[in-house]
């Protein structure tokens, strides 16, 4: 009995170890599942917030950058009207840029990150005003404010920018109308040095396969992977939230993803519930096994004490030794049989233990395979999600083009109906015209001009019919008007001939006038030089008829020995004498321009005064 109890205690110890190991493993799985569940819940909450933002951005794209962003821009505009800003802040920067290729939205969004919601100010006073507006309007985290002087032109980045023949830089992939926004992104993110390569394998080959392109610091794939020359990082998000073009498609994708996540959450809850039940069951088995082991150990201790007491007690001499020997042999046989049974049970237990260890190893291998399959399934899910996105995008495009096709078909039917009506109208009009004139005449005028002429004639006929004057009176007025028209035409011809004659006469007069002006100028120069020569002076007069200017130069003394000088360099007497000569030379070609010249000889010496 003692051996059985000890064997039972050993078996219970093994069971307790197994239960404890199983409980520990389940608790680890429970902790791991709890972490995964927390990650899933955070992802669901983030997707719900993103979905709410997308739903709100249907009518206002600004809400993609924050729920209070429209109110913030309204506050900035109000402050600008009040003159509180020296230069109006720009932002959010992501709202002021647009993509040339929509497929690069995720890459650009991962590249710019928080700069999409950032604002930029020209000076610190404007920054203080903007911070006060943000404190009034925004709740929660505030956008970054970048303070830098506003410049009217975009930085010249030709010397330091990457220029790849096949792949654009972030600066080349964006349409930025405001140079302040472009300069801010260049200064704080270096977008002129970042390449955008759609295929991640090609991006790694370009950046890590050898020498990277000149001036290139990093590259981004269309999936948001960030690749450096010596390392790379995966994106934290799977799609663009702020720069995506098709809002409806993003909303549908988010709704599908939320449905998948809710289903995954339900599966998590079921797995967690089953795991909790299994853990509770194992803990109950562990408690029962522990209690059973305790009871067994108590029995073993009690039997050991009784055995010790029996060993200490002297047995009385048996009268019948033969009976005792028979009992002893029987007991020895029982012990031998029990020992053999014990050895068999021990061997069986060792075999079962080996089987258990093998099963445990196989279980661990299966778990590793399951983990690997789960990881592969995650990648497959991502690819499936992308495929679903492409399918939905194609369905959306198909629906859009089907609608356009139906609209075009409806338009074609309407145009065919209109064409049929017009053909019937043309046939009716041709029939009427044939009744009036059997021969169809070809015209070069457009249909529009003919319609306007027909309408004009209809109005004229209607007006004439309303007036209903006498036919003879109308004919008489017509002949009078025709005669008046002929007279006026003849007068116009005569006037045109007279005007042509006047034009030729005026041209001849202008030519004669130019010749006369040239002769008078030469005569004036001759008289001026003759009068100066009486005193021994020499001079010149330069007429500029085009600019209506006259330049006079006089040189006292011998003309051949000195250069001509300007009038301002002469003395008072010389200037007075030259002025008298100029006035007299003008009298020779025109009427006296001066009625009176008083005290003209004030500065003259006696010789000049006598000659004058």
Automatic annotation (TrEMBL):
Q: Record's superkingdom?
A: Eukaryota
Q: Which residues form a coiled coil?
A: 244-306, 335-467
InterPro entries the record matches: P-loop_NTPase, SMC_hinge_sf
Which BP terms from GO are recorded? chromosome organization; double-strand break repair via homologous recombination
Q: Name one GO molecular function term.
A: single-stranded DNA binding
Annotated localization: Chromosome; Nucleus
Q: Which GO terms describe its cellular component?
A: nucleus; site of double-strand break; Smc5-Smc6 complex
UniProt keyword list: ATP-binding, Chromosome, Coiled coil, DNA damage, DNA recombination, DNA repair, Nucleotide-binding, Nucleus
Family indicated by similarity: Belongs to the SMC family. SMC6 subfamily.
Official protein name in the record? Structural maintenance of chromosomes 6
Q: What is the lineage of its organism?
A: Eukaryota, Metazoa, Chordata, Craniata, Vertebrata
| Gene coding for it | SMC6
């Amino acid at each position: 009995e003692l051996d059985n109890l000890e064997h039972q205690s050993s078996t219970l110890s093994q069971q307790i170890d197994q239960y404890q190991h199983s409980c520990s493993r389940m608790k680890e799985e429970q902790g791991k599942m709890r972490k995964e569940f927390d990650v899933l819940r955070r992802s669901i909450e983030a997707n719900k917030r993103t979905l709410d933002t997308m739903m709100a951005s249907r009518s206002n794209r600004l809400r993609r950058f924050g729920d209070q962003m429209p109110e913030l821009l309204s506050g900035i505009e109000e402050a600008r009207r009040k003159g509180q800003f020296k230069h109006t802040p720009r932002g959010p920067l992501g709202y002021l840029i647009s993509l040339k290729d929509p497929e690069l939205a995720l890459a650009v969004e991962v590249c710019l990150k928080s700069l999409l919601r950032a604002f930029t100010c020209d000076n610190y006073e404007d920054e203080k005003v903007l911070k006060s507006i943000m404190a009034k309007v925004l709740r929660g985290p505030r956008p970054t404010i970048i303070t830098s002087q506003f410049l009217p032109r975009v930085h010249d980045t030709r010397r330091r920018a990457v220029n790849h023949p096949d792949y654009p830089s972030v600066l080349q992939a964006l349409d930025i109308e405001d140079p302040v926004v472009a300069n801010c992104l260049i200064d704080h993110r270096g977008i002129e040095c970042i390449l955008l390569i759609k295929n991640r394998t090609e991006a790694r080959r370009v950046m890590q396969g050898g020498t990277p392109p000149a001036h290139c610091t990093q590259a981004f794939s269309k999936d948001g992977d960030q690749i450096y020359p010596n390392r790379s990082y995966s994106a934290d998000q799977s799609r663009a939230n702020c720069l995506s073009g098709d809002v409806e498609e993003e909303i549908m994708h988010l709704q599908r993803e939320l449905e998948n996540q809710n289903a995954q959450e339900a599966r998590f809850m079921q797995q967690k519930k089953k795991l909790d039940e299994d853990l509770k069951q194992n803990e109950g088995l562990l408690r029962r096994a522990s209690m059973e082991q305790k009871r067994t150990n108590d029995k073993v201790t009690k039997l050991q004490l009784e055995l010790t007491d029996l060993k200490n007690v002297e047995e009385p001499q048996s009268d019948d030794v033969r009976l005792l020997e028979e009992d002893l042999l029987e007991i020895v046989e029982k012990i031998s049989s029990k020992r053999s049974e014990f050895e068999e049970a021990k061997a069986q237990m060792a075999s079962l233990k080996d089987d258990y260890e093998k099963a445990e190893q196989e279980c661990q291998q299966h778990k590793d395979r399951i983990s690997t399959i789960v990881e592969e399934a995650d990648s497959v899910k991502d690819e499936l999600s992308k495929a679903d996105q492409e399918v939905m995008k194609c369905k959306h495009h198909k629906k859009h083009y089907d609608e356009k096709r139906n609209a075009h078909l409806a338009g074609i039917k309407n145009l065919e109906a209109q064409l049929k009506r017009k053909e019937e109208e043309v046939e009716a009009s041709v029939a009427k015209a044939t009744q009036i004139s059997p021969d169809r005449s070809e015209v070069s005028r457009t249909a529009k001009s003919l319609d306007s002429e027909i309408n004009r004639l209809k109005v004229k006929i209607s007006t004439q019919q309303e007036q209903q004057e006498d036919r003879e009176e109308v004919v008489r007025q017509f002949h009078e008007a025709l005669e008046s028209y002929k007279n006026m035409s003849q007068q116009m011809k005569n006037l045109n001939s007279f005007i042509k004659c006047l034009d030729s006469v005026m041209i001849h007069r202008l030519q004669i006038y130019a010749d006369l002006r040239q002769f008078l100028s030469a005569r004036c120069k001759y008289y001026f030089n003759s009068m100066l020569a009486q005193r021994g002076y020499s001079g010149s007069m330069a007429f500029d008829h085009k600019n209506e200017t006259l330049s006079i130069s006089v040189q006292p003394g011998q003309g051949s020995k000195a250069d001509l000088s300007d009038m301002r360099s002469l003395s008072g007497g010389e200037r007075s004498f030259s002025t008298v000569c100029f006035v007299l030379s003008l009298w020779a070609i025109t009427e006296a321009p001066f009625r009176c010249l008083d005290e003209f000889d004030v500065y003259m010496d006696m010789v000049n005064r006598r000659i004058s």
